[in-house]
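Section: protein folds

Sequence with per-residue tokens
===
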Amino acid sequence: MMIGPVGRGEGAPGVREDAAEVGEAAAAAALALVGRRVLRVGTDLAEVDEIRAVLARQPRFAPRVFTAGERAYCDVPADPAERYAARFAAKEAVLKALGVGLTGAVLTEIEVLRAPSGSPSLRLTGRAARLAEEAGVRTWLITLTHTRTLAHAFVAGLGPQDG
């Protein structure tokens, strides 16, 4: 559920504005990496309407893809699709950073956590954690953003602290 360059044709309502917001979030995330030892990066866009449709069509999708903690957070609003889409994008971004596809690890092994401040973080377990360890990744940085139509995630896998 990734889209390529944002654009669904001229005149599509909200597309240019959504793309600008997503681009600004990606630029801010990249700036946060300056001076850090980044070993791996990954990014992904998910269409909120596609996630909404999958959630409606396939009741087992959410438990198969998201942890209980993620579902508890996502299911709070009347329309949880934006939150689910952002977390799905994060899982795909992590798998891209690790150089594997969707079959590289069980998606529930990649969990997006939320601090009381609202800041997201990642917890990897199982095969996902082993892949990260093999790649030398010790910690992750993550940023998420979404609009009514798009959700974006950017992750950076950091190596051990220097010095």
Observations:
- The helical segments are 15-31, 48-57, 61-65, 68-74, 81-97, 126-134.
- Confidence is low (pLDDT under 50) at residues 1-13.
- The first helix runs from residue 15 to 31.
- The first strand starts at residue 38 and ends at 47.
